[in-house]
Amino acid sequence: MTGTNLGAVGSPDIAARIDRLPPTRYVWTLVALVSFGAFFEIYDLALSAPLSLGLLAAGIFHKGAEGLFGLSDQATFVAVTFAGLYVGTLGFSTAADRLGRRPIFTFALIWYALATVVMGFQSTAITMCLWRFIASIGIGLELVAIDCYLAELMPKATRGKAFAISASIQFLSTPLVAVLAWRLIPGEHFGISGWRWLAFLPAIGAGLIWWVRRALPESPRWLEAHGRPDEANAIMTAIETRVQADWGGPLPSPRPRAIAAAANEQVSLWRPPYRRRTLTLVVFHLFQTIGYFGFSNWLPTLLVSQGITISRSLAYTAVLALVPPIAPLVFSRFADKAERKWLVVSGALLAAAAGLLLSRMTQDSNFLVFTAIGASVAVGNSLMSLSYHTYQSEIFPTRMRARGVGLVYSFSRLSAIFSGYIIAFTLEEAGSAGVFVLISIAMVIVALTIGLFGPRTRGLALEEI
Predict the structure, then answer these.
(1) Which of 359, 350, 357 lies closest to 378 in space, CA to CA?
(2) How many alpha carbons lie under 13 Å from residue 126 in its C-beta half-sphere?
């Protein structure tokens, strides 16, 4: 392809200029900077299971009818977590379309850090749940902005790989939470209960990430879509300058888009061609939550109900937590070579099959066998998760990307509010085996929904999708 200097690329649109960028060190630096914000969303969600056990041991949480609303306090804790994520995802996601992606990063991280610190000082179930709800609002807003930013800033040839590497960075929090919980719960350290340390530590990290991420540019695609072409061009030129310095030569020439969108085009999530996409992802999210978080949030409790001790349950969880940050790095090798929808389907079916096998594990089960089966569930969940985060960010236009992602993603949060109670009820009535069957059925429905109705996106520019 004919090379070009920066001065010659003033006329092609932002999308064409982004899609021709080679994957240099600066590009991956942007991926890393934005991804460490989502690190705390995964930390926050992974915290639910071990923190609940710590609060039970401390006498703050109660099981069964002794808990709030006559149900397990763990179920309520999970429910308010997702209620906060729901409010943040749906109620505030449109702010990322109106105000830009970058301001939301700052606002959401500060919100989360402050609320989590306050939660760590609480000593009753109701105040713990209240501040958990408030903290989760900030995290829900953060993740929508991050997904939109990555989709808009990454070239089409490496978009899947960027989301895979981002997922790997985010899921570094999973082994961190597992190891911290293993070492800190139960007991006190420097006169402070171990579970409180789990709440205080992420606030320190969030402050550091906020400081580092000040160098992130605004999304040029967002600026162009909102009638600010001069700003978009200035930022795009700065990005090209950095990329060209890494590349060591002229950048490839931009290719005009096959499809040009009207600047003031009026689009709706509930009209063709987006209505089918919206409905497909709504159904998908209603069920993927039962499968994904049913496993990740309830695994220690499910294992304990099968006769496995708390300490061994947390040790198993610590080992399995190594899978989520490692698996995406493997998936990054083919994330842009396989059709995105089929990656979602494959991950869901793998998790469903392995989950059924996991229900047969007991205290006497071979550690290696258990680990292999549990790792298969984690691998399936990881493949499904990183693929759908890419997928849902691709299929809505820039002017309403955050609104679209926020709307469909909010249904996963809404589902999770009730799925915690559904799982708690199923656990009491049918045991852990019944819960694993429920999770597997949900994953099969996920696979059918995306496989039958999801559009194809591989190798296409966002504007073409």
Answers:
(1) 350
(2) 4
The burial class, CB within 10 Å (0-12 / 13-18 / 19+), for 264 is: exposed
| 109-139: burial string, b at 16+ Cβ within 10 Å, e else | bebbbbbbbebbebeebeebbbbbbbbbbbb
Dist. CA 221–CA 229, nearest whole Å? 9
Task: Please give the DSSP secondary-structure letter assigned to residue 192.
Answer: E
Which residues 6+ apart lie within 8 Å of 244 measured at CB?
6, 250, 251
Task: For residue range 187-237, list pLDDT tens digits in order.
Answer: 777 878 878 888 887 777 777 777 777 778 999 999 988 888 899 999 999
* Encoded amino acid at 353, one letter: A
The total of other beta-carbon atoms located within 10 Å of residue 311's CB is 11
Q: Closest Cα to residue 392, out of 382, 400, 410, 404?
A: 404
On whether the pTM is more than 0.85, the answer is no
- Cis-peptide, bond into residue 273, ω within 30° of zero: yes
Cβ atoms of residues 180 and 198 within 8 Å: yes
Percent of the chain at pLDDT exceeding 90: 23
Quick one: which of 41, 45, 460, 29 has its CA closest to 255? 460
pLDDT in tens, 3-59: 544 433 334 588 889 999 998 999 999 998 888 777 776 777 777 777 777 778 777
Domains and CATH numbers, the chain: 14-252+262-453 (1.20.1250.20)
Beta carbons of 97 and 64 less than 8 angstroms apart: no
